[in-house]
Amino acid sequence: MPPRRQPTARQVRLGAELRKLREAAGLTAREAAALLGTNSVQMSQVEAGIAGVSEDRVRRFAAHYACTDEELVSALVAMATDRTRGWWEEYRGSLPTPFLDIAELEHHSTYRGDVEFLHIPGLLQTEDYARAVFSYGVPELPAPELELRVNHRMARKTVIEGARPVRYEALIHEAALRIRVGDRTSSRAQLVRMLEISEADHVTVRVIPFDLDGFGGAWSAMMLAGGAVPKLDTAVRDAPHGTTFIDAEAQLDVFRTLFRKVEAVSLDPERSRDFIHRLAKEL
Questions:
Q1: Residues 54-98: pLDDT tens digits?
Q2: Cβ(233)–Cβ(249) under 8 Å?
Q3: Global pTM?
Q4: Do 248 and 241 contact (CB within 8 A), yes or no?
Q5: Contact 236, 223 (CB under 8 A)
Q6: What is the chain's alpha carbon radius of gyration, rounded to the nearest angstrom?
Q7: Is-contact 153 122, C-beta < 8 A?
């Protein structure tokens, strides 16, 4: 197979995990290539996600790297052999690649979590709210691209509203609930919709109130996606220069800990629903 010109974040992650196994075994790419009967160029392409890899080759890698974590190996095999062409593929070439990578990440996730301070999390947004968010960009998006982004965001909701929803928890600061991204009517509709979604057993919404003492975590906005095994979890952060996918174990531990710290000081789900209900009545 010819090398991929633009591997997806999932393909890059598979290569990165194979590289981590090799490095844990204390082998260089050249040494591993010699053991496996290949060359260092092909090894580099596999570990960069540019070249595909078969189930047999993944298991050979694991054996030569003395990896005995069968759950992890099976998860890597599933990543290597998955040929899913999900709904997001219809947007390929029309939207920036990170939009597609996030949708694919969510499709394969075992749980989802968000911490947000200035915006309602994307999975909870109404169409009007999402349109208002995307409309504020500079430079202004052409109308067709604006609608593509809105439609894509609405389609992502299948991860929590589809036939096989995953467990989802959103920690949302009061600021995000009060900022009127759209007009008063659309802001009220957004809060009402959040209340409706939060009634589902697999969805938890918690509010971080303004009057919380000693809260210095307003910089810790994040998205967490659970992998098939904890080592394959992913943290995602948005920044002005783009979207960052984080998979290093030490960094993942940092973001997991931050999530738990913010969760611990947030209102419980029942009080959070009451809080959101009061805000909606004020509008």
A1: 999 999 999 999 999 999 999 999 999 998 889 999 999 999 999
A2: no
A3: 0.94
A4: no
A5: yes
A6: 21
A7: yes
Cα dihedral sign for 83, 12, 138, 192?
A: positive
Give the Cβ contact number of residue 77 at 10 Å.
19
> Could you tell me whether strands 167-173 and 203-208 are parallel, antiparallel, or unpaired per DSSP bridges?
parallel
Find, among 118, 253, 269, the residue nearest to 180 by Cα. Answer: 118
Dist. CA 65–CA 236, nearest whole Å? 29
3-state secondary structure labels for all residues of 37-104:
CCCHHHHHHHHCCCCCCCHHHHHHHHHHCCCCCHHHHHHHHHHHHCCCCCHHHHHECCECHHHHHHHH
State which H helix or E strand residue 253 sits in. Answer: helix 249-265
Taking alpha carbons only, the member of 232, 109, 120, 253 closest to residue 174 is 120
Q: First-to-last CA distance in the chain? A: 58
Three-state secondary structure readout of 211-243: CCCCCCCCCCCEEEECCCCHHHCEEEEEECCEE
Angle between helices 9-24 and 70-81 (to 10 degrees): 140
Tokens of 14: 């598979």
Question: Tokens at residue 128, please?
Answer: 């009007």
Phi, psi for residue 81 in degrees, rounded to 5? -100, -5
In Å, what is the CA distance from 173 to each residue of 59, 118, 199, 272? Answer: 45, 7, 19, 11
Tokens of 20: 């981590």
CA dist., res. 51 & res. 43, Å (int): 9
Q: How many CB atoms lie within 10 A of CB 265?
A: 15
Q: What is the pLDDT of residues 17-65, one digit of tens each?
A: 999 999 999 999 999 999 888 888 999 999 999 998 999 999 999 999 9
Q: Tell me how far CA of residue 229 lies from CA of 16, 33, 248, 265, in angstroms.
A: 15, 27, 14, 27
Place of tokens 């979207």: 243
